[in-house]
Structure formats: structure tokens, C-alpha cells
Amino acid sequence: MREFLELNPPKIFWEKIKEYLVNKELEVEKLNLDESLGRIVAEDILSPVDLPPFTRSTVDGYAVRAADTAGASASMPSFLELVGSVVMGEKTELEVLAGEAAAVPTGGMLPEGADAVLMIENTEKIDDITIESSKSLGIGENLVKKAEDIAKGEILFKKGHKLMARDIGALAGLGITELKCFKKPAVSVISTGDELIPPEAEAEAGQIRDINSYSIVSYLKKIGAAPNKVGIIEDNLASLKNSVKNELNQDLVLISGGSSVGIKDMTIEILDSLGEPGVLLHGLSIKPGKPTILAIIDQTIVIGLPGHPGSAWTVTTVLVSEIIKVLAGEKNISEIGLDDEKYIIKAKLSRAIVSDKGREEYIPVKITKNSSGELLAIPQLGKSSLISNLVKGDAVLKIKSYQEGKELGEIVDLKIIEN
Ligand SMILES: Nc1nc2c(c(=O)[nH]1)N[C@H]1C(S)=C(S)[C@@H](COP(=O)(O)OP(=O)(O)OC[C@H]3O[C@@H](n4cnc5c(N)ncnc54)[C@H](O)[C@@H]3O)O[C@H]1N2
Ligand code: MOO
Question: Which of 116, 169, 400, 417 would staple 137 via disulfide (CB 3.0–4.6 Å)?
Fold first, then answer.
């Protein structure tokens, strides 16, 4: 029997999407620091100040000149004259000259003239104005120099950087409270299928609760998109056309289901009728994900996801995620579709896998440890219509289209999808 679809290699998908993305202008918005976790910066961020703004002690002790402690030990201490105390959080006017010391708390400002700090436990107080040092210090010991952390004018984050929790702390430390970030890509998710019901509904015979709207919308949120769950739309031309049309103000529209034989002609007809250039591709040589549709309607990308939950998930995590990263300003167009080495871990396969040549295959994999402490990859083999395989999998194994499978015990690269 003939294949009902022409299966295009993912390379063709990337070429077509890149042609569109290259002309896409990304919008920018100003955000408060508190709202910027996980957001992508839209310009290089340079430090406006030095951090720390003054040289400060990292211990409780005495600010000294290191040379005055040269050769000091418990049996041969050196003596220093106490000239005062640094007050925490205040500028000090003290100056430490040769043979002198000033008490300083952890984080306190180093007085002029001092170039090291003696820890309190390496000293003995002889009287009110004399201490002895039992330690020989090097210049710079127990202090952080002005601008040592981040210098004024230093590029802290490059355009396209995703802000992590630790980054928010660094920005706060520099007094940056507002920053320009790319707007989150707006993505609508439509589920089609007359058998579908919302999760809260009682299922009658033949009905299935909508999984894809929920798995996909949640994943989109996680990767930095602004998803809009449209819900379940009936499998008829007027409803679907109307529903897609309503979402054409979005950057991306995902339609789950109705991409295969059954009603595919209707989906294609709708997408071709709503604007130019319409459907660019139908059918991909990936497993699962064969009946994927790619369309551009004026300024909006529309992707038809196969209805099986495993297939919709694979197409979203493998292909859609890359588009989102470009639309979010996180990834350059030239890097789209290339494997990101940063999130790959290696593990030993617990069993052999056979794969069809000519289709890139994506298999969920559970990661555990074997008795020797090695990471073990347990493939969750099964049908793409099952959600449980995805639930059990921690990562995904990709089998390239020219490979016929993997061997038992082979060390494979795994990509962590959600962490
Ligand atoms: N004769 C052939 N039939 C099919 C082929 C084929 O090559 N020849 N390909 C199969 C493959 S592969 C896939 S994938 C599916 C794709 O079908 P559709 O994209 O048209 O999806 P539906 O038919 O609407 O649904 C498939 C399946 O998934 C369930 N589904 C759909 N949406 C959801 C949802 N939101 N939540 C949970 N489950 C959902 C739906 O009830 C169906 O059981 O076609 C094969 N057929
Ligand atoms: O391609 Mo279907 O998407 O294998 O399950």
C-alpha cells in the first residue's frame, strides 16, 4: 500500500522555518527585576558600578600591612599597634601605617594603607593598644578588592542570555532594577477531535480526556512562551477555520490532532485558505511525529501536531521548542535544529533497540543507576498513543535516521527534556 504522506527529513522543515524566521522582528519590553526570572535579555548588560564598591574584609580580625607580619609565628609573633576600629556599613577615615593594625568586622571597609587582614584567631591582645600576630600574611589575604567581583563597564550578560535565579542576585547587587527583555512568544494551542472531552468531564463510551492541551501548554510555559489554551474544537471545517482565524494574532498556533488521513484534507484546506503562503510541508521522517504539518499564514506559524500524546509531545519538544527559542530571542537562527551539547548526559543502554532506517526516532528513557553505580538508560518502548511512557521517561534518546538501532550496553547520549 502506498504511503499517504511524503515524509520530509527534518532538515527540510528547518530550512522552511528559517526562511520565515529570518525576517521576524522580536519585540522587547521593560521588566522589573522581580519579574525577570527565566526571561531573555534583549541587550548586553554592562555593570554600571564596581562590585564590591570598596575593598572589604572577608573575616573578623585586624586590617594590617602584610609586610609587618612577615616571618611571624606562634613562637615568634610580631607586635602591632591598634589604632582604632572599622564600623560595619560606614566609611572609615582610619589609616593603617607601618606597624599598625585596625580592628575590622567581616565585610567591613578596609582602611587606607592596609593590604591584608589578620584573622582574630591568629592574634593575641596584649593590652588596649597592642596585639601580637602569630601568622605571616601575604598581600591581599582575607580581603576582596574593590571591583574584584564585577568591574564597572564589564559585560555581565550578553543579549540572548536567559536569566537564572543567581543572575537576579547579581543584578540586584549592581543596582539594576529594570531591564529590557524580549517579549515571550505568544502561542495558542488548539485540540481537535470529536472524541475529546475536558479533564473535569465524565467520560462516556468512546470519549477521551484532552491530554495534549495540558502537556503542551505546561511545557510551553516552562520553556518561556506565553501559551493560550484554546481548548477543544469540533472536527468540522467551520469551527476549526474560525478557531484558527481567531488565533492568527499569535506568533505560533499549534493544532493537535487531525493531521493524519481522517480529516487531514480539511486541516490543509483550512490552512491554505486563511492566508499566504499556507501549508509548506505535510509529513516528516521522524518517529513519532510522521503526520506533522507546517504552515505559515501571513505572520503566524501554524503547526499541525499528530494527535497521539507521545507524538504531539515529541514534535513539540524536538521541533516547536527550537522555534520558541528563536522567537524568544534565546537562540540564533543559525543554531536552530542543532543538538545542544549542554544538556546531554551519557548512560548505558539496558537493552538493544531496533529502529527503522530513514526515520529519526525519539524514545523516552528512564535513568537509574546499576549496581556498579553507572548510569543506566531504560528505554520506555511502546506506542506513541501512550502517555505513561513519557511520564516514566526522564530523558529522550535520539536514534539518527541512518542508524538501525542501538546495542545492549552501548553508551548513549540522552537529552534531559524537563529539569
Ligand atoms: N492508515 C493510517 N493511519 C494512521 C497513520 C498512517 O500512517 N496510516 N498514522 C498514524 C500516526 S503515526 C499518527 S501519529 C496518527 C495521527 O493522527 P491525527 O494527527 O490525525 O490525530 P487524531 O486522529 O485526531 O488522533 C490520534 C489519536 O490520538 C488521540 N488524541 C488526539 N488528540 C488528543 C488529545 N488532545 N489528548 C489525548 N488524546 C488525543 C485520539 O483520540 C486518537 O486516538 O494517525 C495514525 N493513523
Ligand atoms: O508518527 Mo505517529 O506520530 O508515529 O505516532
Answer: 116
How much is the pLDDT for 317? Answer: 95
**Which residues, including other chains, have CB under 8 Å from residue 377's CB and lie 6 or more apart?**
347, 348, 349, 350, 365, 366, 367, 395, 397, 412, 414
Compute the distance from residue 37 Cα to the ligand 1 centre, in Å.
37
Does domain 341-416 fall under CATH 2.40.340.10? My reply is yes
Intervals of CATH 2.170.190.11 along the chain: 56-144
Ligand closest in space to the Cα of 288? 2
Q: What local confidence, expressed as pLDDT, does residue 386 receive?
A: 87
Tally of CB atoms within 10 A around 262: 14
Residue minimizing CA distance to atom 3 of ligand 2? 289
Helices (H), 150-300: 165-173, 212-222, 237-246, 261-273
The number of the ligand nearest the C-alpha atom of 286 reads 2
Size (the chain), residues: 419
The terminus-to-terminus CA distance of the chain in angstroms comes to: 42
pLDDT (0 to 100) of residue 5? 77
Q: Residue 383 C-alpha to ligand 2 middle, in angstroms?
A: 9
Residue intervals of the chain classified under CATH 3.40.980.10 are 10-26+183-335
**pLDDT at 260 (0 to 100):** 57
Please give the pLDDT value at position 2: 45
Fold type of domain 56-144: Molybdopterin biosynthesis moeA protein; domain 3 (2.170.190)
Long-range Cβ contacts of 322-327 (<8 Å, 24+ apart): 322/14, 323/17, 323/21, 323/252, 324/185, 324/187, 324/220, 324/223, 324/224, 324/225, 324/252, 325/223, 325/224, 326/21, 326/24, 327/21, 327/24, 327/26, 327/185, 327/225, 327/251, 327/252
Burial class (CB in 10 A: 0-12, 13-18, 19+), 169: exposed
Ligand 2 in contact with 288 (CB < 6 A)? yes
- 288 in contact with ligand 1, CB cutoff 6 A: yes
Q: Which atom of ligand 2 is nearest to the CA of 314?
A: 3
Judged by its nearest atom, the ligand closest to the C-alpha of residue 264 is: 1
Instruction: Compute the distance from residue 167 Cα to the ligand 2 centre, in Å.
Output: 40
- Amino acid occupying residue 165: A
Global pTM reads 0.92
Query: To test ligand 1's pocket by mutation, which of 210, 234, 308 has the most ligand atoms within 8 angstroms of CB?
Result: 308
